[in-house]
Amino acid sequence: MNETRISVENVTFTYDEAPEPALRGVNTAVRTGEFLAVLGHNGSGKSTLAKLLNALYVPQEGRVVVCGMDTADENNLWQIRQQAGMIFQNPDNQIVATVVREDVAFGLENMGVPTAEMPGRIESALSAVRMNAFAEAAPHMLSGGQKQRVAIAGILAMEPTVIIADEATAMLDPSGRAEVLDTVRRLNREKGITVVWITHFMEEAAQADRIVVVSGGEIVLAGTPREVFPQVERMRELHLDVPHMTDLAQELRRGGMPLPADVLTVEEMAEEVCKLLCPSK
Amino acid sequence: MPIQVKNLTHTYSEGSAFQATAIRDVNLTIEDGEFVCVVGHTGSGKSTLVQHLNGLLKPTSGQILVDGEDMFGDGVNKRSIRQKVGLVFQYPEYQLFEETVAKDIAFGPKNLGLNADEIDRRVRKAMAHVHLDYDKYADRSPFELSGGQMRRVAIAGVLAMEPKVLILDEPTAGLDPRGRDRILGMIRDLHAKGGVTVVMVSHSMDDVASLATRMVVMSKGTVVATGTPREIFRQADMMRSIGLGVPEAARLCAMLRQKGLNLPEDLYTQEELQQALLQLWKEAKQA
Predict the structure, then answer these.
(1) Average pLDDT of chain B to the nearest whole number
(2) Alpha-carbon torsion, ordered A22, A24, A30, A35, to 10 deg
(3) What is the tens place of the pLDDT at every residue in B89-117?
(4) N or C: less crowded end of chain A, CB within 10 Å?
């Protein structure tokens, strides 16, 4: 669990012709099996960070090491992308084939996986995201959440050790969001896949093992959700939210109720408030 | 300028193999000054419904009456109705096309045949509404802006038509918290200060809780409930049965009542729940 899966060392990255770097002097590490959430407002540099993690970009200064491989070494490219698969925001931009099964096969064909091995891998990838019933379906007939699960299956078929999701739920409705997050959390738990989950939804980040907050191209806060979210004012300064219940806990504490500051969910809040106020049985 | 929806049914691709009835026999009236939020699971017919309100979609059967006039009646000027009822689509920034922000916003007023001074006045006013500084942004390419800014340009383009009714289909989808708060604040102002009637489709019950004067709840192509947020959010079981949630404050309130806490059953905003809990705490300390 403590083995480093990805390390980002003193990384600075500047886009072509941009006056300022998008990321400057960033250091962070992701442990094997960890579910790491990345938060930050638009333009903070969090998507740039994601794209550095699977060698879509290469830093001008510093280095990124994924599964022991330096992303700057072009010889590692294919292996890094097989190890660290990426899902993006728009479900419609990630599907290439006209049948779900063929879409999942796309990456395998590119990798040169022997044809005999493909059906087994596709089956198991589709069943891991619970989409096997849709193997012969046309992707455009699926819901947004289902399309994202097909995109995840396409990554899983390549047997990666890391999944990087760049706002993979941003365009989905609440049930689609839950369906995609639950799928990835299960893969993290059951298969030990390391997850880097970039999101604007604080309730999603609250379910992560650890959070890093990016602002102005730097990592400005890091810790478990219970360490990060109680810093309500700091998060607001960074133009971010905190979960509703963490906010409510802070207000009630201000009003004199001795509640813990790190309440994240409705269930926890109900329990804590009850300790103080519920009639004794 | 009330909008009445009467026995509205819409079937897509009628007569083909893909025929699908998206909404069935919907009746609804939107009164002046309301802030109506339309909620429903994906596929419940929300977008189909609101696209009828400015005549973008034509009813398969039924009528849309704007100010008592059938929008698809003989001799009705649909163009003038569309000018009064502005529609902001989902991801409206995909429809920006002009070289500069000002030109993009001016496109609608120009098509109305207004003179240059009036167009300029409207562009400036619309930009002020969406909090984009005219001097800083008017001559910029819309494609250089951030996602949230592009969306505000697109909304300004609709506002420049000076609609009396503004319809927005998931205006905050995909935005970060800051972008979302700016757009919602702007819509709130248009309604409260600008006197614009608003119809907004949303998936966020917390946003709905803080904005709506009335909710329209859709499921499987029909309106299953309508009422104030307070009336709707106390029906948590009904909402859950059609795949929707209630605001977290309403959920917490229900959970605490179940555990025997003496709270009113219809609290749904964080503010009022906070007040009620602090009151109980004060009483408990005194006891």
Answers:
(1) 94
(2) -40
(3) 999 999 999 999 999 999 999 998 999 99
(4) C
B255 contact A CB<8A: yes
Which of A223, A234, A93 shows the shortest CA–CA distance to A167?
A93
Give the three-class secondary structure for A227.
Answer: helix
Nearest 10 degrees: Cα torsion B83, B85, B88, B90: -130
Q: Could you say which of A200, A244, A256 has the minimum Cβ distance to residue B281?
A: A256
Q: What is the residue range of A9's domain?
A: 4-225
ipTM summary value: 0.86
Contacts of A252 in chain B (CB under 8 A): 274, 277-278, 281
Residue of A nearest to B251 (CA): A266
- CB of B243 within 8 Å of a chain A CB? The answer is yes
**Annotated domain spans of chain B:** 3-246, 247-287
The tokens describing B136, both together, are 């800083």
| B3-246 belongs to CATH 3.40.50.300 | yes
**Separation of alpha carbons B181 and A114, rounded Å:** 51
CB contact under 8 A, B261 and A274: yes
Cβ–Cβ below 8 Å for B274 and A42: no
Q: Which residues of A touch B261 (CB under 8 A)?
A: 273-274, 277-279
Pairwise CB contact (< 8 Å): B261 & A241: no
Rounded CA-CA distance B169/A108 in Å is 39
A41 contact partners, CB below 8 Å, separation of at least 6: A215, A238, A239, A240, B176, B177, B178, B179
Does residue A2 register a pLDDT over 70? no
What's the confidence (pLDDT) of residue A91?
Answer: 85
pLDDT single digits (tens) A67-115: 999 999 999 999 999 999 999 988 888 888 999 999 999 989 888 899 9
Residue A64 Cα distances to A6, A49, A212, B92, B232, angstroms: 7, 10, 17, 37, 51
Among candidates A200, A256, A274 on the partner chain, residue whose Cβ is nearest the Cβ of B259: A274
Segment A115-125 shows an average pLDDT of: 94
B252 in contact with A, Cβ within 8 Å: yes
| Nearest chain A residue (CA) to B273 | A248
Choose among B148, B243, B256: nearest Cβ to A42.
B148
Q: What is the CATH number of the domain that holds A154?
A: 3.40.50.300
| B43 contact residues in A (CB cutoff 8 A) | 143
